[in-house]
Structures are given as structure tokens and as C-alpha cells.
Structure of Periplasmic nitrate reductase, electron transfer subunit:
Amino acid sequence: MRRIVKPLVLLVASLALAPLLTACGDREPDPVIVAPAPPISARGNPAQEIDAMRRHVPITSEITPLPMATVENFDMTRARAYPMQPPTIPHSIDGYQVDLNSNRCMLCHARSTAAQFQAPPVSVTHYMDRDDQFLAEVSPRRYFCVQCHVIQTNAKPLVANGFRDIDEVLRSERAQ
């Protein structure tokens, strides 16, 4: 009880004395306002030198977005950009329902119907649970296709990519 009363008494006393101090002219001077330092980016450069993702436009400025990339409907698989990359989707998936109750992708890519639709079947790894036991249906952790697989677009790469597939590396070593 004592610990609560002391701070409370001090608070009341200071509130009661505040008008008296102000009236006597014994108040504290106004704080000095200092202009903020220029913003610094994560690299230590001024904020004006933003990375290429904003096309070197300061974060305080609004920019016109680039046009959306269009989907390539070539039905040709693209080469992988890095090891273990999931294959990209070579067709439009607008209107596809992939939710808890339905997976439109499995209409064509299920192992039982892939030959009929001339579509590549889903990998056997999609039918395995986390203990590597095979399941009759696609594993729930592999059910939502677009969390790993993306559609192919005509978008230009944002950064350079020097990945070479193992077959390409072996061919160049044999040639030397």
C-alpha cells in the first residue's frame, strides 16, 4: 500500500504546483526542435538511392507502375532457373478453383487422367506425407498448387541469373 501512495502523492503535488510555477515565470524553457537527420537506407546510402525495384525513384514519390506481364499460353515447359525449382505453369489459370473443397488442376494432372488430357502427371512426391508414406490422394501439404507453381509470363527478369543446369555443366566439361 505504501508503494502506491507515495507516487500518487507526488503526482498530485506536482499537478497542483504546476500552475503556480507557470504564473511565477519559473517554468522550464521550451524544448529546442532539431530537424530530423536525412533518411538512411539499409545500405547506408541516402534514401534517394533506392534499389532498382523502385526504378531509382525516392520512396517519398509516387511512380506509375509497370504494365502487368501477360500470360504465355505456349503449352511448352520452360527450363528451370535454379536447382529444384518447381515447374512453371505453361497456360492461363484464370478462373481455376483451388480451395479446400476443389482443385481444378487435378482434373488434368491427376495420375489417373493425365494421359487422357495429354498433361504431365503430378509427381509422386505430391502423394507422399511428411513421413514418406504414399497416400491415395494428393498430400494436403501439396494440395494448393500455386503456392509453389507460377504461371509463365513475358516479364523480363529483375536480376541477372547465371544458373546452369547440371547437363549443361557436364557438356561444357566434356568439350574442354
About this structure: The mean pLDDT is 77. The two ends are 87 Å apart (CA to CA). The chain is about 25% helix and 0% strand.
